[in-house]
Amino acid sequence: MTFAAIDPQVSLPTIDKLRFTIPPDLDAAHVAAQWFASFSRAIASTDAASVVDLLAEDAFWRDVLALTWDFRTIQRKDRILSFLNDVLPDVKLGELKIKDDHGKGVEFQQPFPDLAWIQVLFTFETSVGIGSGVVRLIPIPPTSGSGSGSSSSEWKAHSILTNLEDLKNHPEHIGHLRSHSPTHGNKWLSKRQRELDFAAGERQPRVVVIGAGQSGLDVAARLKALDVPTLVVENEGRVGSRWRERYEALCLHDPVWYDHMPYIPFPPTWPTYTPAKKLADWLESYAHSLELNIWTNSTVTSLSQDSSLVSNLDKPGKGAWTITIKRGDANGKGEGDGEGEERTFQVDHVVFAVGLGGGVPVMPRFPGMDEFKGKVVHSSSHKSALEHAGKKVVVVGACTSAHDIAADCVECGVDVTMYQRSSTYIMSVKNGIPILLGLYTEDGPPTDIADRISASFPVPFLKLMAQRLTSVIAEADKETLEGLEKSGFKLNYGEDGSGFFILAWRRAGGYYFDVGASQMIVDGKIKLKNDAQIARFTKGGIQFDDGSEVPADVVIFATGYGDAREPARKLIGDKLADKLLPVWGLNDEGEINSVWRWSGVPGLYFMMGNLALCRFHSKHVALQIKAIEEGVFGNHYTKRS
Fold first, then answer.
1. Residue 303: inside a domain, yes or no?
2. Digit-coded pLDDT (tens) for 176-201
3. What does each C-alpha distance from 351 to 296, 598, 606 come to in angstroms?
4. Is 334 in contact with 238 (CB distance < 8 Å)?
5. Which pLDDT value is given to residue 102?
6. Does 528 lie in the same domain as 430?
7. Beta bridge partners of 544
8. pLDDT (tens digit, 9 = 90+) per residue, 297-319?
9. 353 shares a domain with 398
């Protein structure tokens, strides 16, 4: 699938294509300084044509809120010219400076033998904001007859990122801007309780966040730092309960240095791969340390919008919400019988932070399920394979949860069969993670710098890079992959061979990062069934359309989650919900559909993703809300090429 707003002929700017030879004495800092000086002059004069002259023909400009108050990727010089003509007169882009990042503000990089660029980190300002940027310069081929090599090549930008970091006059209250007023312990405790209760006389919430997982906590922490009163509503009894209650074998497959949270990084003693229950305890500690206002054992019972009070129903702005919450832990300790008080608030913004797919399990239905004598559960309800000792288990699905649960069964001595409905992308954590997440290492750049560099690769360009990385990983995993194929396991290599990245952005699934289950399949310890479709359940198992049958006492559906809009629909009703854009997945520019950005309904946001995405994009959600609250939110750029 191509991106409609992206040139389908886009390709990597390889050295051969550019007819360029890297000189041994290349002065990357000098090249960058010359280009950046020209870029700054063109920006200062709001001369879009002169800016575009400094770009390669198939260049990308990715903007995250700084110029567009949206997430946009514009590709190709003619489109970028139109875009800059639209935005430069209003945003007052200026104060551009190359970032002095311990000598890494300018860096010549060569990720592959035939691919090289000069990466430049920079900062800038707009009329209302402070931003950071990343540009990659490539040598443009000399004109015909002028020979080849660096002496006659002109360096131009192949990709530019402009990212909003802060709002002028509305900084985060952190570091030297934190409160310096001493507070006696007894006064702090009573004041803190009043804040948590949103008692009379205290500032009332302007934002309600639904869900206290990592996504809800991150955005609440960001809003607190921006001095926006925020209430987090969690229907479980404790913060982090969703992680605490998942299957016992669950462990993050991302390394710790990729998973840090805003303001409080994991300590240096933290294990590289975090067990789910340990993460749950961390989230609880995080919320307590940052004094986030969270009502546990609480439920939103109604949510309605007064459209007459919304300035523009088709653009971001205050939502004029009336929200009623049934609080089951009025003592603030996560205790109670669910019969607590009801409170109603008038708020500007509501953030749904209830997880990918809205936390609503997908449970397929088949004929005969009512006759089945065994147990049928979704993976979200599975706890431990020890519960199934002496029984035959069938796991329906072949991605992360399915592999984890099947491996847990093997380790607990439980007979298990994996039913694979469609092919799966497999890569090992050992070989794949260092290649895919090479920016995020213990000795790598600071996490905030790594986040911005990672975000500076537009998804259509990243897809081309991912195709190469996927091949490298597959070669490293060759023995395992060949073993899986011999066992009959159906493999794929992602969309057009791009592996994990595009699967994650489009589907948030379809893959497994192997931490041992693949070898169990190769060895036959996890039995495999994938040569027919499920026809029906029988009293003693599952029958397939080729007549074969797999006996089962327990069937676990590791079949993912549904539409992330459903929790919102249940509260706001169909009329408003029908305006919501798709949440996950990619649009025609290769940008995420509506997570972290305009949802289609004023004052309603979706916040979700892994810990790294939540860390980075929680700031973007908070900045949009703060800008709207302070009346400095600019023009929401909606023009499509």
1. yes
2. 888 887 776 678 899 999 999 999 99
3. 16, 12, 6
4. yes
5. 66
6. yes
7. 534
8. 999 999 999 999 999 999 999 99
9. no
Regarding whether 432 and 324 lie in a shared domain, the answer is no
Q: How many domains does the chain have?
A: 3
Contacts of 44 (CB under 8 A, 6+ apart): 94
Question: For 53, phi and psi rounded to 5 degrees?
Answer: -60, -20
Amino acid at 250: L
Token pair for residue 372? 């089945």
Are 309 and 336 within one domain? yes
Percent over 90 (pLDDT), the chain: 84
435 close to 465: Cβ distance less than 8 angstroms: no
Q: Which one, of 262, 323, 264, 332, lies nearest residue 297 by Cα?
A: 332
Name the 3-class secondary structure at 207. strand
Q: In angstroms, what CA-CA distances link 559 with 329, 357, 479?
A: 33, 11, 28
Is 518 in contact with 480 (CB distance < 8 Å)?
yes
**Domain range spanning residue 44?**
15-167
CATH code of the domain containing 380: 3.50.50.60
What sign has the CA pseudo-torsion 331, 336, 340, 343? positive
Domain shared by 309 and 440, yes or no? no
| 21 and 141, same domain (yes or no) | yes
Distance of CA 224 to the CA centre of its chain: 21
Domain limit, last residue, from 532, 557, 582:
557
Could you tell me if 389 and 431 lie in one domain? yes
Chain centre to alpha carbon of residue 203: 31
Q: Do 511 and 534 have their domain in common?
A: yes
302: left (phi over 0), alpha (psi -120 to 50) or beta: beta
Place of tokens 């003619």: 78
Instruction: State the maximum Cα–Cα separation within the chain, in Å, rounded to a whole number.
Output: 83
Q: How far from chain centre, in Å, is Cα 482?
A: 32
Q: How far is CA 525 from the centre of its chain?
A: 34
**In terms of C-beta density within 10 A (0-12 exposed, 13-18 middle, 19 or more buried), how is residue 419 classed?**
buried
The pLDDT tens digits for 87-122 are 999 999 999 999 986 668 999 999 999 999 999 999
> What predicted TM-score, i.e. pTM, was given to this entire model?
0.94
Residue 425 near residue 499, CB atoms below 8 Å = yes
Nearest by Cα to 18 from 208, 153, 178, 211 = 153
* 152, 167, 182 - which closes a domain: 167
Cβ(64)–Cβ(48) under 8 Å? no
